Amino acid sequence: MSEVNLVEAPPGVEGSGFFATSLDKVVGLARSHSLWPLPFATSCCGIEFMATMGSHYDLGRFGAERPSFSPRQADMLMVMGTIAKKMGPVLKQVYIQMAEPRWVIAVGACASSGGIFDTYSVMQGIDEIIPVDVYVPGCPPRPEAILDGVMRIQDLVRNESLRRRNSPEYKQLMAKYGIQ
Questions:
Q1: In CATH, what number does 36-157 get?
Q2: Edge-to-edge strand list for the sheet holding 76-80
Q3: Do the annotations mark residue 139 as ligand-binding?
Q4: What is the pLDDT of residues 97-106, one digit of tens each?
């Protein structure tokens, strides 16, 4: 957090100091420590997420202690478990209903690549229908791995420009997934 520096006030000016930084860094720091996760759990990885939210691992230490079960109030979608192709449109609708900015974590082998279920009915990774920011490997991943995934999202959020969501590259990515 060395980007935000406390600078001494000039002589004759009251106050102990002021912050010298950019608005991007301040907003990024605030966003990174106030993530509201939306758990989309379908199988065993959801149990590991429940352990992560428990008192032993305490996801609240990282500013994500308020899981939201409404997509309109969440900004971090955590997809955990096997996603059937019939469930794909539902997952995409949940993603679309989330407010910008939004981030996605694919937790476990099934959400990342279909896992051991190489069948016609299982989606081979959620990145077929929505963009994914962080992949958490494992079958099922340990709570420490999920915490690491959340910390990686925090780094991404902290360093993301406020203008990124308006860039042509981002709009092109959303168009690739059919999202306006």
A1: 3.40.50.12280
A2: 37-41, 76-80, 103-107, 134-136
A3: yes
A4: 998 899 999 9
